[in-house]
Specification:
single chain; 227 residues; alpha/beta; TIM Barrel; 9-stranded parallel β-sheet; 19% strand; globular
Length: 227
């Protein structure tokens, strides 16, 4: 029977192969395990297999897991849409937020982050398609939002994130990722800690790595189908 540890080992092997294939530096792509709708026991199994970064979409579910897993070394990433009435809990309990698409949300997160804590790492979410279900700023508006976030005292601007529309083949996937990678490369020299291009999931992470992703978000490939 395939275990979570087996899945992580196979996934890591593929990731390293793609780094070599697309002339990326070794260990230049980080793995974020998307653990939404998966159990605490599954997270523990992934952690024992070497994963320290976990992504959650649903706040109350995540808070329950954070409480249960407070004794193990885990970095929590909030990767879902951020509602204004949930910013306080996110600011207090997460190390990363990948889905900033409004200055109002960024300001609330900064205001509600404890100044004595490490700065909250954030990415600006960019919308690469016209799907109404997708959040994010238009690509031409990303720089203005990054500039505003850079001035907030309790946030650390780390990069860009996107969830492009599903495409049937690698060439089509790469076109969408290429647009974000180009904007990331343009903005990177402007911000001191700008080092994260968060793109690529279980069905398209090869194309994302080919176009320069530094962080891939994998759920099914690690944990299997959600219950």
């Amino acid at each position: 029977m395939t275990t979570i540890a087996d899945n992580i080992e196979r996934l890591s092997d593929r990731l390293q192969r793609f780094e070599r294939q697309y002339e990326r530096s070794a260990a230049s792509v980080k793995l974020l395990a998307v653990s939404k709708r998966h159990s605490v026991e599954s997270i523990i199994a992934a952690n024992k297999a070497g994963i320290e970064d976990f992504g959650e979409n649903y706040l109350q579910e995540a808070l329950d897991k954070i409480q249960h897993l407070s004794s193990i070394r885990v970095n929590w990433h909030f990767i879902g849409p951020v509602q204004a009435n949930k910013t306080k809990a996110i600011a207090e309990n997460f190390q990363w937020v990948h889905s900033i698409d409004r200055l109002k949300i960024a300001r609330r997160l900064s205001d509600q982050r404890e100044p004595s804590a490490a700065k909250l790492n954030v990415c600006v979410q960019v919308k690469l398609s016209q799907e109404t279900s997708k959040s994010g700023v238009e690509i031409g508006e990303a720089e203005a939002l990054c500039d505003s976030i850079q001035a907030l005292p309790n946030l650390q601007l780390r990069g860009l994130m996107a969830i492009p529309a599903a495409e049937p083949d690698s060439d089509s996937q790469r076109i969408a990722f290429r647009a974000l990678a180009k904007e990331y490369s343009r903005l990177k020299p402007c911000y001191a800690q700008f080092d994260t291009l968060s793109m690529g999931m279980s069905n398209d992470f090869e194309a994302a790595i080919a176009e320069g992703s530094t962080l891939i978000r994998i759920g099914t490939g690690i944990f299997g189908p959600r219950s």
